[in-house]
Amino acid sequence: MPNPPNRIVAKNIRWQPDLVGRARREALAGHHGVVLWLTGLSGAGKTTVARGVEEALVDRGLRAYTLDAENVRHGLNADLGFSPEDRAEHIRRLGEVAKIFADAATICIVACIAPYREARAKIRQRIGADFLEIHVATPLAVCEERDPRGLYARARRGEIPNFTGVSAPYEAPLDAELELHTEGRPVAACVDEIVAFLEARDLIPIASDEG
Ligand code: ADP
């Protein structure tokens, strides 16, 4: 197992190797498995852009899946809230699931605020070179003006505790692979920028290569 392990409490377990292997799965898919982690404030555009990228890739016959942090809170992470400890466990689990998707030769697009630098650094360390951090760098004022679900207004009234950007911190990435600007741009331009970024890194075939 090449990546640093989590702290393992179980005894008498060992890593079970698989027969097929990552390389064959990627050959079958025709592209690499990778984790695109979209981090940014609420309302920055993570979910909107993630869904658009997923659709653009699937339209091209590639295996992509959006791991939406809020959706995961309905199931796997239904036991977690928004305290710093719960947020850390929330993104640890998301990171582990995303890692499995990448191993399964899928382009896993994670839309998750993940406000703490340290937590993101841990995921980066755990996933390794397959982890690509995309900072959806929409300024707070713009997110607050968009307020697509009225959450900022409620947070400002003190109705939502630990709300990132209002009553909880957001630590912007210092070393993101891509800084995406959404302000005043159509969603499609942002989607195209991420698809071009994947092509430039040779992670997916360039459009004209496809047959
Ligand atoms: P997040 O997932 O980061 O909380 P959402 O995707 O739910 O954000 O909401 C972003 C809002 O901003 C949506 O209402 C979307 O239509 C709007 N928006 C405007 N321009 C863009 C853009 N270029 N990219 C993404 N979202 C945009």
Describe this structure in words.
- The chain has 211 residues and is an alpha/beta fold.
- The protein has one domain: P-loop containing nucleotide triphosphate hydrolases (Rossmann fold, 3-Layer(aba) Sandwich), CATH 3.40.50.300.
- Helices cover 40% and strands 12% of the residues.
- The chain has helices spanning 22-29, 46-59, 69-72, 84-103, 117-127, 140-146, 151-156, 187-200, and strands spanning 34-39, 64-68, 107-111, 131-136, 178-180.
- Helix 2 crosses helix 8 and helix 4 packs parallel to helix 5 (117-127).
- The structure holds adenosine-5'-diphosphate.
- Adenosine-5'-diphosphate is lined by residues 40, 42-49, 111, 146, 148, 182, 185-187, 190.
Provide the descriptors you would attach to this structure in a database record:
single chain, 211 residues, alpha/beta, Rossmann fold, five-stranded parallel sheet, 5 strands, 40% helix, globular, binds adenosine-5'-diphosphate
